[in-house]
Design a protein that fits this description.
Structural class: alpha/beta
Strand content: 15-25%
Distance between the termini: 95 Å
Length: 165
Amino acid sequence: MAKKKKNKKKGNHGSKLIWVSSIIVLVVFLSTFFAFKHDRVSTGAVIDTANYRVLGIDISAHNGKVNFKELSNTNVKFVLMKATEDTEFKDPKFEDNFMQARENNFCVGAYHFFNFTADGVAQARNFLNSIQSKDLDLPVVIDVEQHGNTRFYMTSNVIRRLQDM
């Protein structure tokens, strides 16, 4: 009696895995690229205009190039922009954002991103030196966030540094 040969396909599971992994990496890369494209206005956000009649945005260099001309065709009325952080950092897009916002008739304001561990007086000097020649429409703001700061810092120390500022 003759033995039947099993019809086994010689599979190449390794190359299939590489192809699938490559496709996944490509999709993630393209999604990230288009999600963080630099010349865009974020649209699609649902805003309760009945309760929030004056709309504004908060921007910094992290937003890339903002298209203020396009933004001026929306309901956005003011732009609050990052000027400084810590004791020496100046947002590299602040001057350009300020000029572009003014040219497109937005009300403008500036904020300082507060560093929990840095001297409050030195942070205030950095901020005030960066905005002293600017004609701002909005009160200055100190942005105090856990994100970007150490988690293990005494609240009393943060409050003291804020009071110094």
